[in-house]
Amino acid sequence: MKDTTLHICVDTLSRSTSVPSMAGGIRGLCREDGLTYAYLLLYISLSSGQIFFNKWVLSSKQINFPYPLGLTLFHMVFSSVLCFILTKVLKIMKVEDGMNSEIYTTSVIPIGATFAMTLWLGNTAYLYISVAFAQMLKAVMPVAVFILGVAAGLEVMSCRMLLIMSVISFGVLVASYGEIDISWIGVVYQMGGVVAEALRLIFMEILVKRKGLKMNPISVMYYVSPCSALFLFIPWIFLEKSKMDAAGTWTFHPVVLILNCLCTFALNLSVFLVISHTSALTIRVAGVVKDWVVVILSAVLFADTKLTVINLFGYGIAIAGVAAYNNYKLKKEVSKPNSNESQNVEAVPLVNSSTSQRADE
Predict the structure, then answer these.
(1) Has residue 63 been placed in a domain?
(2) Per-residue confidence at 95, pLDDT binned at 50, 70, 90?
(3) Three-state secondary-structure class, residue 268
(4) The whole model's pTM is what?
(5) Residue 71 near residue 320, CB atoms below 8 Å
(6) Sugar phosphate transporter domain: from which residue to which, for each copy (predicted)?
(7) How far apart are CA 104 and CA 112, in angstroms?
(8) DSSP category for residue 67
(9) Which contacts qualify for 35-43: CB closer than 8 Å, 24 or more apart?
(10) What is the extent of the structural domain holding 209?
């Protein structure tokens, strides 16, 4: 009888002590989920806001700064200086070891060049086409990445992928057909930016998979931003400097430009926070949500955005294809060993300042 009573007491005591620990675990899980959703909301807000910010700076009468090369060059110089201060002066973040002259020459320089092209062409497109239409054209990005990936030996051609790419391409074509005031110059600039961004993603994947170098976005910015600034400085000298001198644009109020650059830097930092708390796929799914937010809000904020039913129908088809592509990539990542998954998470490239950023990325 005493033994039975003792067992009952011990069992009751163990249950009473496990309840608080279980409650604490639930609270911790809810807190972690809440933090993850907060980071996702921050990323979507910054990414969408940066696109509108760039559009406003480049094409509004209030600011009157129609110099995409100059704006992008300022972004890269600002990013280079800020990364140097964070990593070398304040030492808040550490730059990963492993960089050498061979990797810099064969990977960082091509990444810097394609990143510069992405930002330049993507921002220039905003002078000719609406934000919503630019986002619709960007939906073709997985197609460009896949084709270049097959050419580089990073992707394998399959019937399923061909079907997905066909759906995305068809959706973008339908959305383009529904555009009322289409500017083919703007389309060429935007598609050029898409190809440049696809090349950048391929070079980033080569850097991680073949060179074995893993870097977080701050480290990538530390190496890539100065290189991109150099590639932007050369065409800026020949294409925009004389125009800026003639227009007296050097008197432009610096506060707006500094805020614009800070938003771009904060956007890249938010990507790092989202990836560190979730996965590479999550940032892609959040990007799809962001694209819809941008398309809808741009119709409200900008007079040059006139959405039609055909626009939205075509874009919906393209987004369905993008969702199928993300699902395919998810299954592919799940089937890999854990070591490969960690590499993929750390290898996610920066969004740029004219789409997401291109406000890319």
Answers:
(1) no
(2) confident
(3) helix
(4) 0.77
(5) no
(6) 39-326
(7) 10
(8) -
(9) 35/277, 36/274, 36/277, 36/278, 39/270, 39/273, 39/274, 39/277, 39/278, 40/274, 40/278, 40/282, 40/286, 42/270, 42/273, 43/267, 43/270, 43/271, 43/273, 43/274, 43/283, 43/286, 43/290
(10) 68-346
